[in-house]
Amino acid sequence: MNNLKVLLFLTIIPIICGAECVLKFSKTSLTMPKNEEKNLTLFITDCTVEQNITFGIQVEYEENLVISPNFIKIEDNNTVTSIIIQLRTTDAGEAGVYTISSDQNIKPAFVKVEVYKNYILEIVSIVIGWTYFVTWTISFYPQVYVNHTRKSVVGLNFDFAVINITGYTMYALFNVGLYWIPLVRQQYEQRYPLSVMSVLPNDIFFALHGLAFTLYIGLQCLMYERGGQKVSWFGKGFHVIIVLVLIVSVILCFVHYLLWLDFLYICSYIKLVVTFCKYGPQAIMNYKRRSTKGWSIGAVLLDVVGGFCSIVQMFMNVYNYNESLAWLLSNPTKLWLGIFSLLFDLIFVIQHYCLYNGDSEEETPKVSEDKIKFEKENNNCIKA
User: Fold this and answer.
1) Angle at the Cα of 214 (from 211 to 219), degrees rounded to 5?
2) What is the model's pTM?
3) Choosing a second label site near 43 at 20 to 30 A (CA), which of 179, 206, 208, 291?
4) Judging by beta carbons within 10 Å of its beta carbon (0-12, 13-18, 19+), is residue 14 exposed, middle or buried?
5) Taking a C-beta distance cutoff of 8 angstroms, is the pair 238, 164 a contact?
6) 178 contacts 188 by C-beta, under 8 angstroms
């Protein structure tokens, strides 16, 4: 109802063509509990106004949020640089607050508001979020350690290693491009003017950290004993397809058929495909060798913790933010990727602890040291 009043009001109030103002909220996103009030500042700068200007403030999903005022008037002798907007949450869910004007020179400002039911659940969700961020971040370390201590990468599937490098390269390109490249950010704002950029600094860190460690594992594959292992036809064919897709995408960007923003989205889709493809070769290799030696179970267990926490957080947020399960299923990428990864982690756990538990990488160094000690003692006895 308030939105209808705003539209009617703006059609009645004359707005001079050619007026310019820069509007910006003090925050791009807010998280608030249900039935709480909070003030939000709207900054008004760079105004070139010859007559009075009136613009409205609308709410997307009014059932979750009420605001005041709904109209703002800028005088021709304006000296106001900021206005306080009062927010009051009424129900859990998502809402958006944005300015609206019939003058195209006034760019709309937008803030995303997420309303939760329970404060304790919100804190638990944040803790769970940091838990899976940390566990996924350190999940690269066990494989590096296993390779280093064994001075061998026998047992680590090269398809997995190379495809993983490709995946994190695409993921890093996507995050760094959206976060740091001005042209891409401009294209994003033009396509989604009433949306908040979802890439955060911790996403940048995770992507670059993951890329660095996957590259180092690839370097270990070149430095250490590999027992004749090499990238299979599957790994080579996979990368031929990826390279062709990237070449075509870049050409389409240069001829202005696609935006560079679209190219980065293609990179993100490649990362999703990588997640679905990278685990299979390692699981098949373990089966053929009847061994998990050389494949770090520590990395798998950390991935299990991270994946489980990620899925638990999603279901907690569905309840706490009053979303339906249909919403979760209609946004399946994160959910099904998490479930898919957990299924392969379960396969690796069964392979390591149930099927081939007599030959784990932890036992190998001890046996080797005992053997060396025994041989040295025998050599000493012979010389005596």
Assistant:
1) 120
2) 0.81
3) 179
4) exposed
5) no
6) yes
